[in-house]
Amino acid sequence: MSLHPVIAAIVEKSKGMPALSDGTLGAARAHLTLGRATLGDRPSLGSVADVEITADGGPIGTRVLRSAESVAGVIIFLRGGGWVRPSIHTPNRRRS
After folding, report:
1. What SS3 state is found at 17?
2. Which residues, listed in sequence order, are joined to residue 52 by a DSSP beta bridge?
3. pLDDT higher for 42 or 26?
4. Which residue, 1, 49, 57, 79, is the most exposed by fewest CB within 10 angstroms?
5. Mean pLDDT of the chain
6. Does residue 1 sit in helix, strand or coil?
7. Is 49 exposed, middle or buried (0-12, 13-18, 19+ CB in 10 A)?
8. What radius of gyration, in Å, describes the C-alpha atoms of the chain?
């Protein structure tokens, strides 16, 4: 079974880079950004809002990203732990 062409491109661009667990935090973030750029353009963001959800243990910080285009569904991305690698800005970083 072969890799999907997008994944194959990420693997190819990653050759020679250290593993995410090796090197500096900056190098690991650069590695993740390279993979994101390989995926191509994303749908345009209509809005980004930081909101808090009330929970028994205290408020939970969340980020709501809405597409500028019509969508047929929703994706809920749950991330545990601290924002070390990637940063909170990585998921919605736009390509320049």
Report:
1. coil
2. 61
3. 26
4. 1
5. 76
6. coil
7. exposed
8. 16
For residues 25 and 19, what is the distance between their CA atoms, to the nearest angstrom? Answer: 11
> Residue for token digits 């990585």?
90
What's the gap between Cα 7 and its chain centre? Answer: 15
Q: Which residue has the tokens 């998921």?
A: 91
Report the interhelical angle of 25-38 vs 5-14 (nearest 10°).
150
- Distances in whole angstroms, Cα of residue 81 to Cα of each of 8, 29, 63, 93: 29, 16, 15, 20
Tell me which residue has tokens 């929970």: 55
Name the one residue in this structure whose structure tokens are 């929703």: 74
81 pLDDT band, cuts 50/70/90, is low
Decide: helix, strand or coil at residue 94: coil
